[in-house]
Amino acid sequence: MLKRIQYQQYGGPEVMRLEPFEPGRPGKGEVAVSVRFAAVNPIDWKLRMGEMKIVTGKRFPRAMGMDMSGIVMAVGPGVERFKVGDEVFGQTRFKQCGALGEAAIANESALALKPANVGFDQAACLGSAGVTAWNGLIDKAKLSANQHVFINGCMGGVGEAGVQLARSLGIRVSGTCGEADIERARALGVETVHDYRRTDLSQLGERYDAVFDTAANMSRAVAYGLLKPDGVLLDLHPSPGKFLRAVFDRRLKLVVCSPSPEILDNLGLAASDGTLRLSIAKVVPLSEAIGLITALEGGQRLGGKAVVRMA
Q1: 10 Å Cβ neighbour count for 83?
Q2: Please, what is the angle between helix 126-134 and helix 157-168, to 10°?
Q3: Which of 58, 104, 154, 262 lies in disulfide reach of 98, CB 3.0 to 4.6 Å?
């Protein structure tokens, strides 16, 4: 029987279990994937903690993991873009999750064909980081060549994807990261890199077309102080209050990871031609994934993506 990481109640790391499960059949517009690799993201444990239980509900067991790559094992009624045997990457269904397991089901619209020259490990990392970066820079801020974005946390998952996507479009990038990542940021084309521990962002003189707070730790006052008069703040942590504020405040753009076939296809092309490659810091087998997730949740920093290998 197949295995996956799941839990029987909302809670901390102690509720995670690696257990056997019976994979269901894909429904209308859905695709069943034999997972090869999954990438770990903070959303995985936030969902497990119950932070979105108004959406995820009270039915258990619940599976973990959003980002994955693998091979199509079955398709549901109405699926036209994929067939059994296709190599794919993307995201599982938000409410059900399941990427941290040997098989998972995804909506057809949240998958793309994996380019032949991109490894399954790298492809698994593209989902949340790549889609969120695209949603922010292109869909929300609508940045174009020669504009300038400030990415707070430019060497995190979303930040690193954002740097590379921006540079591929001719967008100038400055930002913050930890001291250990400064040279890596410069190598990717970040013009001015600030050590987030030593820099008072309120004292910077430069003004930007957009501020992308991928680290989610900037105050609105500091972020707005970095903007040009027509600049926008890209906020990754929406709340009901922020949605209301955004109705009246044109500078505030809330970014929710929203995959689409077009975005995922573009990410695949960028990965294929080498303009988008996320750093992988650690790969573990599924049997060791709970320990890895627990360490990351506890604050361990790896300097790149954490990836789980299914076999």
Answers
A1: 10
A2: 50
A3: 104
Q: Identify the domain containing residue 190 by its residue range.
A: 128-254
Pair (145, 236) in one structural domain: yes
The residue type at 10: Y
Mark whether 83 and 28 lie in a shared domain: yes
Max Cα–Cα distance, the chain, nearest Å: 59
Q: Which letter, b or e, does each residue of 160-188 get, where b requires 16 or more Cβ atoms within 10 Å of its Cβ?
A: bbbbbbbbeeebbbbbbbeeebbebbeeb
pLDDT at 275: 96
Residue 309 CB coordination number (10 Å) = 18
pLDDT at 240 over 90: no
Q: Are 95 and 66 in contact (CB under 8 A)?
A: no
Q: Return the residue matching tokens 């521990």.
A: 197
Structure tokens at 169: 């479009």
pLDDT single digits (tens) 82-125: 999 999 999 999 999 999 999 999 999 999 999 999 999 999 99
Per the structure block, which two tokens stand in for 210?
């957009």
Residue 150 included in any domain: yes
Residue 94 and residue 191 in one domain: no
In a domain, 263, yes or no: no
CA distance 193 to 182: 6
Tokens (6 digits) for 258: 């929203």
38-82 residue pLDDT tens: 999 999 999 999 999 998 999 999 999 999 999 999 999 999 999
CATH number, residue 133:
3.40.50.720
DSSP secondary structure of 163-212: HHHHHHTT-EEEEEE-GGGHHHHHHTT-SSEEETTT--GGG----EEEEE
Pairing label, strands 148-152, 193-195: unpaired
Q: Which of 60, 70, 63 is nearest to 18 (CA)?
A: 63
* 153 lies in the same domain as 109: no
The tally of domains found in the chain comes to: 2
Task: Report the DSSP beta bridge partners of residue 194.
Answer: 176
Q: Is the peptide bond before 61 cis (omega within 30 degrees of 0)?
A: yes
